[in-house]
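Example record for the data management plan.
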Amino acid sequence: MSEMSIALIGIGEVGGILAADLGGRASLTGFDKRQSEANAPAARNAKTFSVRCGANSAEASDGAQLIVSAVTAAETLNAAEAVATTRLHGAWYLDLNSASPGMKQQCAEAIGAAGGRYIEAAVMSPVPPKRLGTPILLGGPHANDFISVAEPLGFSALTVFSTELGKASAAKMCRSVMVKGIEALLTESLLAARSYGVEDTVLRSLDDLFPGPDWTALSRYMISRTLEHGARRAEEMREAARTVTEAGIEPHMSAATAERQDWASQFPAAAHHAELAEMLDVMRAAMNIREATP
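Corresponding structural encoding:
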């Protein structure tokens, strides 16, 4: 069987992992808006994993049998529309991006009009630990047929969730309301608690109320994710808010979470501290916060 041709639209963190894991099984082309910036992850990944970059998404996708979109949430529709400017001749389009059901349906329309087969994908856990083994829910009328294409490439945790477009993304986005919301709540709660000197009491109370996780370790991890990826997570939460709005509900909590995630991204250096207290103190120092008085 001839080598499959795969185009990666987005060659950042997720795209780089895909390039590393798929490179031995396929010929890779790609495009990323930052591919020409020498120190950008996209440029390093393209060079390291022999991704032949096109001048734009359409050029990178031309002739590819599988196109994988792994861009930021805000670029989801732009990426699909850019790819759709070329004839796709039955190519598979795997949309890994975190976007609302309505946004995914718009992407499907664009790809379908260009002759492609759109696959809605909802990534249900962080990609770096499990890589191609990351749990992914698939949706849309082509989802079942795509399994036989994806599994030989190494994707090992794909589940056809629904043949109806939007269902898989609805599950992903509603989950994000909780997960990213908890991250934002812990950030706000423990920053304030540290300022009052009561963070240990708050954490012990969480251990009593919700036994199971080590709340100190979990809090450190979840807050660090907002510091490292807050801007990207804020984009995802704006799509979560769009999802809630599409359901006819005011997205008060999702919108607030997006703001807190965006705000947290200004403290990336704090994420490198192994201890929760140290991480919070670095953030507080950057904010010029001293001890609070009850």
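Summary line stored alongside the record: The domain at 4-165 is CATH 3.40.50.720 (Rossmann fold).
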